[in-house]
Amino acid sequence: MTESFGANDWGLILGASSGFGEATSIELSRRGMNICGVHLDRRATLPHVQEIVDAIQKNGRTALFFNVNAADEEKRREVIAGLKAQIGTGFVRVLLHSLAFGTLKPLVAESVDDQITPAQMNMTLDVMAHSLVYWVQDAIRAGLLRDGSRVYAMTSLGSLQAAPTYGAVSAAKSALESHIRQLTMELSHMGITFNAIRAGVTETPSLQKIPGHESMILSALKKNPSGRLTTPIDVARAIAVLAHPDTYWLTGNVINVDGGEMIVGTK
Average pLDDT of the chain? Predict the structure, then answer.
């Protein structure tokens, strides 16, 4: 195990049970960080969550996991209080926002039953964008985020490109990047950095829920200079490196972690 972090360093991972959150939880623990994971899973997928906890503990680190809705105000404060009680003199070195729960419907459809509703739009924006702000607010008030903390939010090409049924999620990704910029402006004086991570097309459970994701995969395979898709571990390793103390001047950005996929035009 390659240790990069201290025994009192913690990662707070929102969306820790699959995809980028899962990979980052395990990778950060491999490098010496304790993990507080927030996830929302039903009974059928809880055995996999236990596998993630076991992997973290096998790396010799503490795993504190909460099976709650990360967008629920009361549950959020319960997690913050629980982590505060556990963390002692430590702090959250990395906060990763990797929540992928939204409505995939067209904004306008021939039938009103087939188009997105205000409640669905608001839910998507709240979970996938605005919740980042509320977690940062509460974590700062609890003293968990301070000089040296790194905050990352998973964005996507949806912030720049339109796709069928992706309207609400696209709006959420745009808002998420806006929140990263605003938080950078407001909180840089505290020594906390904020960056959005734009991964290349990655075969995660959330991608598989998008209608037409098969064509997205084929297109990415053609475009990517490396001839393969991005993987969750590619992103996890990048986040682990970016969390180093020497990256204190790297903030307010959208960072592509995609093997060069974005720079290549349509083939």
Answer: 93
C-alpha distances in Å from residue 90, one per residue of 13, 15, 41, 67, 143: 16, 22, 28, 23, 10
CB-based burial of residue 137 (10 Å sphere; 0-12 exposed, 13-18 middle, 19+ buried)?
middle
In this prediction, residues 190-195 reach a mean pLDDT of: 98
Note the Cα 93 to chain centre separation in Å. 15
User: pTM (2 decimals)?
Assistant: 0.93
Q: Are 128 and 176 in contact (CB under 8 A)?
A: yes
Q: What is the pLDDT of residues 35-61, one digit of tens each?
A: 999 999 999 999 999 999 999 999 999
pLDDT for 1: 44
What is d(CA 68, CA 65) in angstroms, rounded to the nearest whole number?
9
| Cβ neighbours of residue 33 closer than 8 Å, sequence gap 6 or more | 4, 5, 9, 10, 11, 61, 93, 94
How far separated are the first and last CA of the chain, in Å rounded?
41
Q: What structural domains does the chain harbor?
A: 9-205+231-256 (3.40.50.720)
User: Who contacts 152 (Cβ-Cβ below 8 Å, separation ≥6)?
Assistant: 94, 95, 96, 97, 194, 195, 196, 197, 239, 242
How confident is the model at residue 216, as a pLDDT?
74
Report helix, strand and coil shares of the chain as percent, to nearest 5. 50, 15, 35
Report d(CA 214, CA 147) in Å as an integer. Answer: 42
The DSSP element (H or E) to which 83 belongs, if any, is helix 73-87
| Whether pLDDT at 206 is above 80 | no
